Amino acid sequence: LQAYERRFPTCPLIPMFVASDTVNEYKSEDEAIHVIERRCKLDIDAPRLLKKIAGVDYVYFVQKNSLNRRERTLHIEAYNETFSNRVIINEHCCYTVHPDNEDWTCFEQSASLDIKSFFGFESTVEKIAMKQYTSNIKKGKEIIEYYLKQLEEEGITFVPRWTPPVACKLESSTSHPRRPVSPAINIPDSATKEGLNNKEILNTSSSPAEPTAGTPDDKLDADYIKRYLGDLTPMQESCLIRLRKWLQETHKGKIPKDEHILRFLRARDFNIDKAREILCQSLTWRKQHQVDYILDTWNPPQVLQDYYAGGWHHHDKDGRPLYVLRLGQMDTKGLVRALGEEALLRYVLSINEEGLRRCEENTKVFGRPISSWTCLVDLEGLNMRHLWRPGVKALLRIIEVVEANYPETLGRLLILRAPRVFPVLWTLVSPFIDDNTRKKFLIYAGNDYQGPGGLLDYIDKEIIPDFLGGECMCEVPEGGLVPKSLYRTAEELENEDIKLWTETIYQSASVFKGAPHEVLIQIVDASSVITWDFDVCKGDIVFNIFHSKRAPQPPKKDSLGAHSITSPGGNNVQLIDKVWQLGRDYSMVESALICKEGESVQGSHVTRWPGFYILQWKFHNMPACATTSLPRVDDVLASLQVSSHKCKVMYYTEVIGSEDFRGSMTSLESSHSGFSQLSAATTSSSQSHSSSMISR
């Protein structure tokens, strides 16, 4: 360990190791536990062209070293932060004492490399990574021996074993001089940048301590934590600071408040990588769908105001905002028939946004952190009408969206007066609800809620709604049947197609079986960069890029062309003439990419020739899949699909000059240009041409 520490902050025996910074250090009072995280800067031996395309000169890794002197173990965990949305590198090393001989050290090491996409250079990156990794392993022993010899030359040949604090103090006066240790610090808000090195982050005590006077952002103020965030361990606090700083440095949009960032960390048990992934997906979703402005710009239709039996009603005993939903009195079938799924989803989103706002208000009122709300659901009147299939479909979609974008906002769910039909609904819905959320459900049958352990344990008697036997008048609408005169046909709902992203730079398009949607881009200067970003809103599509030396004819609005399939929900343009032959009149410049419903895809193509490029979204015929006993939202939605021969995409394209190529790649790589390339479906075709980049 003493020898290993000397590798920092730089190591002359590792030329690629340029520098390292300590971003977090924790040491227990008895000095038995020592945890250090470092950010290491590497100059990877990669082709100059690859560095130019990637838009970076250095690569950063994060390394966390956990030394347990009591157990005599050392664990080293490392991962890359640079290009973490394209290449995932994880490494774990473990030093332990041999069980049969205490003078021997056991060393175990494992590592994984997963290349999602890298501008078409996937195989090159794999070779570079394997070369560097193999070289480091071979050189590891040589480096340790070098520093062991250095210690011997300094007269250090023995390190005493750790003992409890009292014994340690007596021993320290007679043992060899110890190297100074830098003071423990929280993760600095200004130091947490994009990454730390994979293998260089074991200890920060290798060099003489430098003054580390903390900046105001080095840690969160204790009063601020107590008032707005709640009890946080030092590690949880550091995770919050790191994730917030990462967003401030890389995200170009609105930065969420600490309370909201904390929700995503809690949803993933403070695993920063997982929390960052779902948070970035949510921020992209909010931007594309204009969710931040929904309370200010959208007014619910009168039908919702009259027949949606839900509303806010004071607060519970813990100060959480209380939302009351009389689901049993609500005509879900009538609402779906009158409004469609999108309007219902939009209304639920506005309820959640209002919930976030009320949590902030209650935090100020009660002087303690309120980060979630309580929902009271009255099922009196629930019957088979509520199990109408399109209604269940809408409910599943709403649950899926809320689970993904509003984690840890439900503090408690009180389900009252559950009838016999409730287990059927619960069986359909529960598999799609997160386990942590499910633990917050309390279900009461009949009048059980009036007894011990019932409502009075959670809600003050003075605010129990009148319809539940309380004294407080509840202004929540009573619901009732939606008049059939307000129903609209499926075609009307389809044509209206109310979407959440009405005001954006994106265009919508419909893709039909046998009628792809195509976009023409004329390139004058070779080496220009065509960039694209699109969301597959409905169905599965195949994305292609073609090149032609001659311009295609303008689309004709005949009975078989765009005229018969253009709709308010999205246009459809076909440019490639049916008499054109692939390979003669036009050529494919990218491998076809199959994109699934719900995926967000982003990419770019460096053009080799001037001429006309055609971006094409084509209907993808899915092979029939065998049924499975495992419930999946995709399976449920697929079975309920109304129009099986129609797909929809929202897309945005841009042409960038070759002189701006590097900057564009940097912004695309950083995953903070407002696009969803950090989605769970982060994949890319390994056959992609070397001049292109595709990511999801």
Task: Summarize the structure in words.
About 30% of the residues lie in helices and about 25% in strands. With about 700 residues, it is an alpha+beta fold. The protein folds into four domains: about 150 residues, 2-Layer Sandwich (Alpha-D-Glucose-1,6-Bisphosphate, Chain A, domain 4); about 70 residues, N-terminal domain of phosphatidylinositol transfer protein sec14p (Helicase, Ruva Protein, domain 3, Orthogonal Bundle), CATH 1.10.8; about 190 residues, CRAL-TRIO lipid binding domain (Phosphatidylinositol Transfer Protein Sec14p), CATH 3.40.525; about 110 residues, Jelly Rolls (Sandwich). Strands 1-2-3-4-5-6 form a six-stranded antiparallel sheet, covered by helices on one side. Strands 7-8-9-10-11 form a five-stranded mixed sheet, with helices on one face. It has a five-stranded antiparallel sheet with strand order 12-20-14-18-21. Helix 6 crosses helix 7, helix 7 crosses helix 8 and helix 12 runs parallel beside helix 13. The relative contact order is 0.10.
